[in-house]
Amino acid sequence: MTHRNTSRRDILKGFGLGVGASLLSPMLNQIMAASAGKPAPRRVVFVTQSNGMNPDHVRPVGVAKTYRDRHPTNDRLIETSIVDKQLHEAIEPLTPFRDRMTLLQGLSGRIGISDHSANYGALGACPGNKGPLWQTIDHAVAAAIPGVVPHVAIGVGANPGVLMNYRLSVSGPGQACPIVCSPELAFKSLFGAVADGADAKAFDQKSNLLDFMAGDVKRAQATLVGDERQKLDGYLAAFESLHKRQREIADMRGKLKEHAPALGAERLRPSASSLILESQFEIGAAALIAGLTNVLLLTSGGGGQGFGEFPELGVPELHGIGHGSAQNGRSAAQCFVDLRRFHTGLIAGLAKKLDAIREGDGTMLDNTVIVYLSDSGEQHHPSLYEWPVVLIGGLGGKLRTAGRFLELPGYGQKEHRTLANLYCTLLHAVGKPVDKFGVPDAMLRETDQTGPIATLLA
């Protein structure tokens, strides 16, 4: 340990934080830990999107199909490098991260079968229509790598007026966890929660957090240099972006209110689902970068038939496209592509933010894994013989996700793996190894459903 690092930690401990202390402290604690040579924290981000994920969307261009009717038929693991492959247009925004990404096909999740969404079964690997039976993977991971706020769950609901979604996340038996679907409420509950006493009175969700923390920011900037200063600057940039998004939402609401009488509320109900989701990604990024949480759940619709609505993207009715209905002159298939492209653009933006911040020998993205899937498996009315998943980031070197397209053996094959095995893999990677998660599939009696997916572990 160098004298420089020792002095730096002493300075960080004592430079005197003011009213913004509770907001800056988590970030400064991370910087102090890095100066002391402690390993960087590991983080897991879950992103769920309603209405199914077409396996074709996660198959690189030019790679032959190994499934029929979205039912994998291969009897062995097939691996293809995607480093130099063209991605499907639906996930093309993720192209900059091909070398740190795995496209995963062949998982099943039949235990969660329902008419539409698998509900709690998507993250719980359990029956999808029997209520919140037990802890879902987001909470299991949060228990293994807790942060100041152990678990953050935010998103957009079935429509912009939905404030909470209780259909996907479970903290314990019978305890459905609310997913906050209002950016204002998410912003206030997350960043307002870390201020107390006099700080709480000074905190205003509509004000610029950088103004609130101005004095502490100046002291921190005067103290930090090099990578430490760069990380603080990234943290501040996240708050600047967050503030900008909050103002955009406020401005939009004013315009909607101004024009509602002329348009007629019954004739036209404006939707801001895309803006809400963009804001939630901003809030989630800020929470991660600030060191407030290590586990983030971002949801777009989901649960039952709460698919969401995006008229501003030309897709006002998501249930219809699940049944093949064209929207605004576009085929249902093209609507699905456009919606996925919007979502993967948000994911790419989050990954870019994390990748811009140095941490240890790499970046925040290197110490994170983003897990992207649908709560409806492979389609609107799923069979769940196939449950495509996209993984981005290596979770601090614990996962082998560098430029891989993995096609696991199909349902019923000896080496077949289920969604539960993926969740066991994540728990192994965060230091809480388990060999069973959720409920086994009774139809896979000849298949070993225990343990992690070996090829994904480093």
From TrEMBL:
InterPro entries xrefs: DUF1552, TAT_signal
One Pfam family from the record: HXXSHH
Name this protein carries in UniProt: DUF1552 domain-containing protein
Organism: Humisphaera borealis
